[in-house]
Amino acid sequence: MLSTITPSSQTGATIFGGHDIARPQLMKRLSDSGSLQQYEHNDLTPAIGREFPTIQIRDLLKADDQVFRDLAYTISSRGVVFLRNQDVTSNELRDFMLCLTTLAGCPSTSGLHVHPLTEEGSELGDQISVISSEKQKKGGGLTHQLSDVSRYASNAWHSDITFEPVPSDYAMLKIHTLPMTGGDTLWASGYEVYDRLSGPMREMLKKLTATHDAKFFLDEARNLGNPLRECERGSPLNKGAELAAVHPVIRTNRKLTFLIIAVTGWNSVYVNKGFTKRINGVTRDESDILLNYLFNMVTQNHDAQVRFRWNKNDVAIWDNRSTWHCATYDYNDPRAGDRVCSLGEAPYLDLQGSKSRKEELGL
Ligand SMILES: O=C(O)CCC(=O)C(=O)O
Ligand SMILES: [Fe+2]
């Protein structure tokens, strides 16, 4: 199993003309061979989410490459999958994530992300982000920024690390410490939001890019007393203190290049409330109107969302290219978990080869 993959694949990357970063390695379309059908599973809503109540990550780690590819396809097509009550260490989470992204065809230069706020020499290693209510209270986060007075819980909707030039393909969160009630997480489908746009609106948005920015992490690093991680954060393109990137407003899941075909090949809206500050090439007012409209499409369409109630040691794995998620800060007791985020390709819109999810599935 996974004989071709070792952690050194993160650092031993070859760069062709400096542009391998955006080139996935899979030479054919990922599709589902059906190897996961043997496991109990159920779709949580028509638009998004599948739960596998009995699968253990530790067993999957021994599975062959096709099982990982089927899982990658399932996550990318269903947006998010939930695995219950996992007996798995943080090292196993890391290994699992690396296998998943590599077998799903990520560029050879993409590894696991190092969050700019992760403390150097932290106990669990650079590639695990500790999600913790205690840290949230101290540091800020998307709804706790000191200068932010809005009380909308929906301010926390985001896709992970879109301020990086090479953002995340997949992410995985295990929650091990839970309040008695509360702390649910919501996900929403970017495919579904794209499907709800009119033809003329899609055509306009396809011509636009947006600037994503996480400068607020500079303040947060100061508040936490940790220096910002300016090193390579999992890709040669993700480094320094700029914490800003420009991406297309409509993104195809998995870049198409010479000989390469997509994971799903479906388009998604790729702006998020957490990090997207400006649609480029239009006036400030136009940008505000468009961004507010697109953010409202996420927050006001509860039939494009799934809300997950965690039990201890449950794991969620999602595709950050085509979903948003939102934590719920409605509890006082401690809540904590470990998150691993893998890096995919530089975001790309495939004008010729892409489809909408509903077009492809005939829905
Ligand atoms: O705490 C949560 O429920 C979600 C945190 C989050 O945004 C993440 O793990 O990427
Ligand atoms: Fe997140």
Assembly type of the chains comes to single chain
Q: How large a portion of the residues is in β-strands, by DSSP E?
A: 15-25%
Lateral arrangement of strands in the main beta sheet: 1-2-3-13-5-15-4
Order of helices and strands: EEHHEHEHEEHHEHEEEEHEEEEH
Rounded mean pLDDT is 87
What is the number of helical segments per DSSP (H or I, 4+ residues)?
9
Evaluate the radius of gyration: 19 Å
The main pleated sheet reads as: 7 strands, mixed
Q: What is the overall shape?
A: globular
User: Low-confidence parts, pLDDT < 50 over ≥5 residues?
Assistant: 1-23, 256-261
What ions, cofactors and ligands are bound? 2-oxoglutaric acid, fe (ii) ion
List the helices and strands and how they pair.
Layout: E1 42-43, E2 50-52, H1 57-60, H2 65-78, E3 80-83, H3 90-103, E4 129-132, H4 133-139, E5 168-177, E6 185-189, H5 190-195, H6 199-206, E7 209-213, H7 216-224, E8 244-248, E9 250-252, E10 267-269, E11 276-279, H8 284-299, E12 305-308, E13 314-319, E14 323-327, E15 336-343, H9 357-361
Parallel strand pairs: 2-3
Antiparallel strand pairs: 1-2, 3-13, 4-15, 5-13, 5-15, 6-12, 6-14, 7-8, 7-11, 9-10
Bound molecules: 2-oxoglutaric acid and fe (ii) ion.
2-oxoglutaric acid binds next to strand 5 and strand 14.
Commentary on this structure:
This protein has 363 residues and is α+β, with helices and mostly antiparallel strands. The chain has helices at residues 57-60, 65-78, 90-103, 133-139, 190-195, 199-206, 216-224, 284-299, 357-361, and strands at residues 42-43, 50-52, 80-83, 129-132, 168-177, 185-189, 209-213, 244-248, 250-252, 267-269, 276-279, 305-308, 314-319, 323-327, 336-343. The strands form four sheets. The chain has a seven-stranded mixed beta sheet. It has a three-stranded antiparallel beta sheet with strand order 12-6-14. The protein has a three-stranded antiparallel beta sheet with strand order 8-7-11. α2 (65-78) crosses α3. It binds 2-oxoglutaric acid and fe (ii) ion.
